[in-house]
Amino acid sequence: xxxxGTAKSGFLTAEHGPFRCSNCTFWRSPVGCxxxxxxxxxxxxxxxxxxxxxxxxxxxxxxxxxxxxxxxIIDKTLEEVGL
Length: 83
Ligand code: SF4
What we know:
By secondary structure, this protein is of the alpha+beta class. 18% of the residues lie in helices and 13% in strands. The chain has two helices and four strands; from the N terminus they run ββαββα. It has helices at residues 36-39, 70-80, and strands spanning 27-28, 32-33, 46-48, 54-57. It starts with 26 loop residues before the first strand and ends with a helix. Bound molecules: iron/sulfur cluster (SF4).
């Protein structure tokens, strides 16, 4: 999504989608993102979890340049070990 979304993290809200934050390993239900560049992005609204952790406010159908699925992590790990 280079060239779209916010300058720092490429964050985009659902109306530009379809996207799927809720399929990303950085997403925390119900509306949180813990990816460090999203959290540090001045254009992304923030929410605070009950334990005090500040997160980016990301709804289920938002997205950004750091979208990472569990499958992509597994595939990369398998590739790194030659499987
Ligand atoms: S796609 Fe981006 S904004 Fe959404 S949860 Fe993943 S890292 Fe956060």
